[in-house]
Amino acid sequence: MSEVWTTPHRSAPVDAVVALPGSKSLTARALVLAALSDGPSRLVRPLRARDTDLMAGALRALGVHVRADGADWLVTPGDLRGPAEVDAGLAGTVLRFLPPVAALATGPVRVDGDARLRDRPNAGLIAALRDLGVRIEDDGRGRAPFTVHGTGRVRGGAVTVDASESSQIVSGLLLAAARFDEGIDLTLAGGLPSMPHVEMTVESLREHGVTVTATDGGWRVTPGPITARDEVLEPDLSNAAPFLAAALVTGGRVTVGDWPTATTQPGGRLDQLLGEMGASVTRTDDGGLQVTGTGVVRPLVADLGEVGELTPVLAALCALAEGPSRLTGIGHLRGHETDRLQALDEVLTAVGARVEQLPDGLVVTPGPRRAARLDSYADHRMVMAGAVLGLAIAGVEVADPGAVSKTLPDFADRWSAMLGADR
Ligand SMILES: O=C(O)C1=C[C@@H](OP(=O)(O)O)[C@@H](O)[C@H](O)C1
Ligand SMILES: C=C(OP(=O)(O)O)C(=O)O
């Protein structure tokens, strides 16, 4: 892909069926649990993208055998050991899920990544690990780079955790906790975004035979073995968002195949959210989710705190809506791949919308549309948001579109295929 992507403009209704690779979040959990489990596992239809490659690489660096050369990934646990250097790239999942695993290794494990990773909030995780008996060297801010000095075991036990800036702090602790001597009795110190992602963690743990109990203020994980299991990964429903949005924008029809009947992925809320924005949403007989639009996009007033990663695409839709939208509950997006509230403000303003930043969200008022060159902000979901805008607005370009490699390296090809797939 070139340095600047001229996104396809399309006024005719799209009519396409789209198949998507596995979920980033489920693949990350499956890799970590496979690495900590009591035998080899096979992951079927994992996501192959920068974030999951980095997770596989991080686990390999600690002594886990991950075979990723075939269609399936084969994971064989090994003795966890340092010294090791872990490149977390820009992946929140690696930043927050890997350190508790590193604490179970012997020897130092240094975690670092892209320049922006060093700004991503992580103090709640580092403080919690220290309270659980782990020695960690950091710059005093709890952010990358830091070094976990594992001794091969973690005491565990009761801990109060500040996960107000990222649910991944809770997920990371819970994922490894069955291997701590005392498990974990985690109490939240404050708010928690992205609750479905914690439910995903709890469900993944239970599928691996781990006992997780919801308590008054958090979760308790009982110490014990993590049972190895083969797993077929659900498609990534957050990556489905731009494709389904295309139906709404063009007044067309898009079906994403193999849509799970029940899911903890935040994208599972797309039927309701896109329905509120004017789509009709149905399930197809062969298990897909079909979204049909009329070409009119209704404004959205919603608290997206539980489904934050859907925000960039939904906000792009809001800029194309027939009135002002208000998206709240998403202050923590300022700590994502980029400050997404600021980035969305800049991008939506560039294409003609009026944007007001709230402490925890955005008010987006559509305006006269205009062409613009947008930045990707190294953020995969900002590229996808740009693609949605470009459908409706001629002349939308996105600089540095390769940022999509974080979760969907061939996004632009899939986007073109969708647009060319009219029947
Ligand atoms: O656990 C996970 O897989 C994720 C949790 C969420 O993180 P935050 O709670 O930091 O938003 C989400 O935004 C991220 O894309 C993936
Ligand atoms: C916030 C996201 O990623 P990360 O896992 O790096 O936090 C995302 O994918 O939208």
TrEMBL record:
The kind of enzyme this is, by top-level EC class, is: transferase
CDD domains according to UniProt: EPSP_synthase
Q: Write the Enzyme Commission number(s) for this entry.
A: 2.5.1.19
SUPFAM superfamilies this protein is in?
Answer: EPT/RTPC-like
Annotated residues that bind phosphoenolpyruvate are located at: K24, G92, R120, Q168, R340, R381, K406
Q: Which UniProt keywords apply?
A: Amino-acid biosynthesis, Aromatic amino acid biosynthesis, Cytoplasm, Transferase
| Active-site residue list | E309
An example molecular function term from Gene Ontology annotations: 3-phosphoshikimate 1-carboxyvinyltransferase activity
Q: Which GO terms describe its biological process?
A: amino acid biosynthetic process; aromatic amino acid family biosynthetic process; chorismate biosynthetic process
Residue stretches making up the Enolpyruvate transferase domain? 11-415
UniProt KW Amino-acid biosynthesis keyword: yes
Q: What HAMAP family does this protein's entry cite? A: EPSP_synth
The protein's name is 3-phosphoshikimate 1-carboxyvinyltransferase
Source organism per UniProt: Geodermatophilus sabuli
The encoding gene: aroA
